[in-house]
Amino acid sequence: xxxxxxxxxxxxxxxxxxxxxxxxxxxxxxxxxxxxxxxxxxxxxxxxxxxxxxxxxxxxxxxxxxxxxxxxxxxxxxxxxxxxxxxxxxxxxxxxxxxxxxxxxxxxxxxxxxxxxxxxxxxxxxxxxxxxxxxxxxxxxxxxxxxxxxxxxxxxxxxxxxxxxxxxxxxxxxxxxxxxxxxxxxxxxxxxxxxxxxxxxxxxxxxxxxxxxxxxxxxxxxxxxxxxxxxxxxxxxxxxxxxxxxxxxxxxxxxxxxxxxxxxxxxxxxxxxxxxxxxxxxxxxxxxxxxxxxxxxxxxxxxxxxxxxxxxxxxxxxxxxxxxxxxxxxxxxxxxxxxxxxxxxxxxxxxxxxxxxxxxxxxxxxxxxxxxxxxxxxxxxxxxxxxxxxxxxxxxxxxxxxxxxxxxxxxxxxxxxxxxxxxxxxxxxxxxxxxxxxxxxxxxxxxxxxxxxxxxxxxxxxxxxxxxxxxxxxxxxxxxxxxxxxxxxxxxxxxxxxxxxxxxxxxxxxxxxxxxxxxxxxxxxxxxxxxxxxxxxxxxxxxxxxxxxxxxxxxxxxxxxxxxxxxxxxxxxxxxxxxxxxxxxxxxxxxxxxxxxxxxxxxxxxxxxxxxxxxxxxxxxxxxxxxxxxxxxxxxxxxxxxxxxxxxxxxxxxxxxxxxxxxxxxxxxxxxxxxxxxxxxxxxxxxxxxxxxxxxxxxxxxxxxxxxxxxxxxxxxxxxxxxxxxxxxxxxxxxxxxxxxxxxxxxxxxxxxxxxxxxxxxxxxxxxxxxxxxxxxxxxxxxxxxxxxxxxxx
Length: 794
Prior knowledge:
Keywords: Signal. This protein is of the alpha+beta class.
């Protein structure tokens, strides 16, 4: 069980969104503060600049006054502000608010803003607001604790006009029973601003986490997203300007060159019936730079270096989330709180060279034009802004380009955000993958079949991209037979965006089929580093002796690829590596370990470290990392389960069982805890004792067919055949495509002489996958066992 280090993500979403941050398991944290430390200091602690290379936005305004003035009132500039009468929007007049589950009182004492609610240990107390967080459409408030943590209060101020339902307090997770100790409680680790938010809400952040003391000394250059958050550290540039601004001075250029100096432009080709502009002129040197400058804060991604500065290649500093189930629909539309990068990089517009600033003013963040006019920059209104194209009344919501091509999803209760894949509505595909679509999201009284028929009536029954790639992604997610071929086709189609192709790689079956093996091999040689990195992960399912293909990637120019190569080679002894490659491995290994230590305060990062160190034979280091994980959360499930496996492997079965019993006690509703305990008992020859936890695991997770299957096998081995058959039959009723249950039933029926039933089950297994050699061999054996009819005349 590998634990995922969470990405930089919103600290205040739904439980489903935030649970992804900690391996999709139910987690219970222990309080990290004493009740005596409830009140924050009266004033926020001053945070001096730590990085001498930064100058601060104020130093830019003298030479760049128009840009500074435009930026000053932007959401970027107000991403985080000291809590003052000028910045706090919420009503702190003394009102008490409750939603039936949570209660808080908001009041003001002079220039101090206080919120009375439950804190560490469940104690109700006053908490002083240190900073305001954002402005539109909501504002949140932070509390500074003595150990340096800043935690966002769970109540937000709806800053929309009253006529739109705003000017009120509301709880961000009203349906959750959040109590102190839950990592999603506002004082829990999944809400810690220092890790989750700091790098994107202040300029020049240094997280300053000290593992030994488990404290933060987070510092920054300035609050909010300032000039240097995008243009890079500017101290040298300011010094150049103050020294006389010589054109030959290398300091003349800022670290991140965002200005387009190509001289090209988007232009419409005369007579082109498409009505879509194309780039005319030299390549846009700044196109990639701009998108990668925005990506770290507009992508769901895990940092792989500590406190990166602007100007770095995105995959040198972050590992982005692919189109993961629960975060993206199978058609690539946003679902979880994943921001814009992941959808934008799927778009044809991005592949054509469109950048963020083609639509948005980079200094105030607003669109260059309102409504359809912003799209008309590159899409002729005479072709697209017509009833013949959008089939809705002029001026209506349905006539807006964004209604069909940028559907919205609401986060944090009221924050509606547009999907940036700019895709064509496909209600027919959405119906097949169980996803919403732009048409019936608006026409809520209509079925997706109705919407699909309307589109077919308007544009014709055939579409250019049939069959749609989303069907292959959904098949891969579901593990359907034959999914490998569709996924492999996406992987090898270089006209598809890299994030989509990498997602297809991640969904290929293990062990590999002929199709999937070929796709992984092609991805390893691909020009896109995201493909190479993901393909290397696919090699983790191979025996260490078969992972030597990763050696060549230890010197890849992209850090993410190098660290994935090192991860794949972790179990390979150093002496087994080619001698010439050993220094490269050492370097990539150091980068890998450093990437996990970026999140040293998180128990999942410590579990990852422990697994890597154990693979290298560093038992002491692995044990220390497991202990560090449990020091941060003594009930962390991934740590307990992995520690148990670690203890078993080094010949300490009693310690392994103790860890697993602790896991079951802490997580009685977690099927994986019961299942892990059962497997440990089976390995120790105590199969009879394993039956109870196996039954519990199967009951808790009826949708996980593997649990009930192992339960049935254990029952059969204990001589309880009837119960085993009943468990398998029930498993197939719940999970009718579970091949292993079919094969087990066929084998049990064969052994009882019921050849007809055995054949029925074997045929069903073979129907799932006609290339299933084991099922075919079993069926052939069963046919040979059929009673032969008596010879004629006897």
